[in-house]
Structures are given as structure tokens and as C-alpha cells.
Design a protein that fits this description.
The complex is a heterodimer.
Chain A (H helix, E strand, L loop, with lengths): L2 E3 L4 E5 L4 E3 L2 E3 L5 E7 L5 E7 L5 E3 L5 E5 L4 E6 L8 E10 L4 E5 L3 E6 L1
Chain B lengths: L4 E3 L2 E4 L5 E6 L6 E7 L6 E7 L2 E4 L8 E4 L6 E5 L8 E8 L8 E2 L3 E5 L1
Parallel strand pairs in B: 2-11
Antiparallel strand pairs in B: 1-3, 3-8, 4-5, 4-9, 5-6, 7-8, 9-10, 9-11
The chains are: A mainly beta, B mainly beta.
Chain lengths: ~120, ~110
């Protein structure tokens, strides 16, 4: 069964500081990996995705993530956080069953940004 | 392109009442998902449709939850009767049928059961 662990429930960083959100996954084959962001009262917005190829992927809003197969990790990074980045971040792992994609989410990391 | 549309945005009901949610996916997206997101948790898949057929409903509490996707486009999710623990945000998502495509989410329906 596929699963995702986000070990940090809540992270606080100062505006302008760097950010790293951790994500570990369990999947029986080569996974599809995603990071989504959710602002209060909103749905989930895709930040970036990894399917294959270059293990460092770039996303929107200046975010990037690195796929490390040996560590089963897909950590999200941003070199300089902005106050508007405060939100909930979800890592997800998925695969293609031959008929459709199946996606499993982690429990999320809430990011607070102090000015 | 227009996004995934959901209605209503908010719903408050008493326990044992029934409620229905509606979702209109992005045009051309064959796959439709209903997720339940309880406060403080990640979204949990309830049911997944491919066109108008069910792909996965293993985590749907079938004694009280039902969903349909007639004509392979719009979908409705129903709860009858509701319990207090059903209070959550119900998210609808859609995607094209091929594997390397992310899910596109609607803004969700926040259900409060009192």
C-alpha cells in the first residue's frame, strides 16, 4: 500500500529565511510525487510534480523539490520565504493503475511566516 | 480553462439528516475523485470514477455514503444519515485519464454536522 509521512505538523520561519518541508513516501514501484498547497478555505493547488527524469524539479512560486530514491524522500524547498507562503502544504504519492491515477496524501505541514 | 466547480460552499445540518454535494469537473477530464478532509488531516480518497464507472470506492462508508456520476460528467456525493464525525471538507478533483497528470481540485464543501 502506498503512504506518505510528513513528520513536521507545524513549522514557523521568518520572512526571507530558507524553508525545507520534509516528505517520506512508501510505494512499491517508481512513484509519481506531488506537492500541493492549501490556503484557508481553498482547495489544493499544485506546486510541483515529479514523474521521471531530473530529480530536482522546479515548481511555481519559487519552490523546488528533490526526489531521493535511496531515502524515499521528496522534500520541498524555497530559498527565501514570503509572508504570502503561509499555508498548509501536502505531499502526495501516486501511481497509474492502468486505468487511472491513484493519489495518497500526507497529513500536511502548516507553515507560519513571521515578519 | 474553467476549474472544478463545487456547490454548496458551506452546509450545516443536524445529525441523522441527509445532505448532497455537487461537482462539475474540468471539461474533458475523464477521472473524478471525491476526497474527505477532516480538520488537521490530509485528504482521504472516498471514491474515484473513470468516466461513469467506479474505479475505487474501498474507503467509502457505503452504509451511509453514496456517489454517482451519470453521463460521465457531473457527480453528486450523498450522506444519509449524517453523523457528527462526517464534519469535514469534501473536495472534488478531476484529471485526464493518463497517468502523468496531476489532480485539479475544487474549493470544496465544508460540512458541519451538529
Amino acid at each position: 500500500a502506498q503512504s506518505v509521512t510528513q513528520p513536521d505538523i507545524h513549522i514557523t520561519v521568518s520572512e526571507g529565511a530558507s524553508l525545507e518541508l520534509r516528505c517520506n513516501y512508501s510505494y512499491g514501484a517508481t512513484p509519481y510525487l506531488f506537492w500541493y498547497v492549501q490556503s484557508p478555505g481553498q482547495g489544493l493547488q499544485l506546486l510541483l510534480k515529479y514523474f521521471s527524469g531530473d530529480t530536482l524539479v522546479q515548481g511555481i512560486k519559487g519552490f523546488e523539490a528533490e526526489f531521493k530514491r535511496s531515502q524515499s524522500s521528496f522534500n520541498l524547498r524555497k530559498p527565501s520565504v514570503h509572508w504570502s507562503d503561509a499555508a498548509e502544504y501536502f505531499c502526495a504519492v501516486g501511481g497509474y493503475t492502468g486505468t487511472a491515477s491513484k493519489l495518497t496524501f500526507g497529513t500536511g505541514t502548516r507553515l507560519q511566516v513571521t515578519l | 480553462e474553467a476549474g472544478v466547480a463545487q456547490s454548496p460552499r458551506y452546509k450545516i445540518i443536524e445529525k441523522r439528516q441527509s445532505v448532497a454535494f455537487w461537482c462539475n469537473p474540468i471539461s474533458g477530464h475523464a477521472t473524478l475523485y471525491w476526497y474527505q478532509q477532516i480538520l488537521g488531516q490530509g485528504p482521504k480518497l472516498l471514491i474515484q470514477f473513470q468516466n461513469n464507472g467506479v474505479v475505487d470506492d474501498s474507503q467509502l462508508p457505503k452504509d451511509r455514503f453514496s456517489a454517482e456520476r451519470l453521463k460521465g460528467v457531473d457527480s453528486t456525493l450523498k450522506i444519509q444519515p449524517a453523523k457528527l464525525e462526517d464534519s469535514a471538507v469534501y473536495l472534488c478533483a478531476s484529471s485526464p485519464p493518463w497517468g502523468d497528470s496531476p489532480l485539479h481540485f475544487g474549493n470544496g464543501t465544508r460540512l458541519t454536522v451538529t
